[in-house]
Amino acid sequence: MATPEQLVQGIRENMKQLAQACEGLDEATASRAPVGRWSPKQILSHLSGPEGMGMLPLLRAFLEADTPRIDLETENPFFTDKRESMPFTELLEGVRREYEAVAAFTSTLTPDQLARTAHIPAFKDTPLGERPSLEQMIFGLTDFHVRFHTDHLREVVAALRAPGGA
Known about the structure:
Order of helices and strands: HHHHHHHH
Mean pLDDT: 96
CATH superfamily: dinb family like domain
Number of domains: 1
């Protein structure tokens, strides 16, 4: 079992990697997308979670009820008109703040709290399974998910910068 400190360290390292992937990205490029892919702005919007909610309600739900059912929209970029009009740097700062709040939340958790589970049907066919612990959810959200979308962002930016890119 990972400790809160290990989880927080992972969150911060993954945010550092995301920020590095965004370095030098101008607004015009950040707003474009290759065919069939999300734009860099949409990727950051997705990582921020639902507008006005973020990720903390999802994590707090593990503590508020015994095995709560949590329904997720796994492929929703949550890209609202407001987020579309935001500068890329502001979206990135929003992601950083969101995950820093997750890190602060995580740092207060006890082993018993980290062991609490939820029922998340959308995860049935994933390595987490449909009844992940809070520790698994935090790790999945802040490590696997952020790293996946950091790599996704790098691929999109490379495609956009390639000759004839979208």
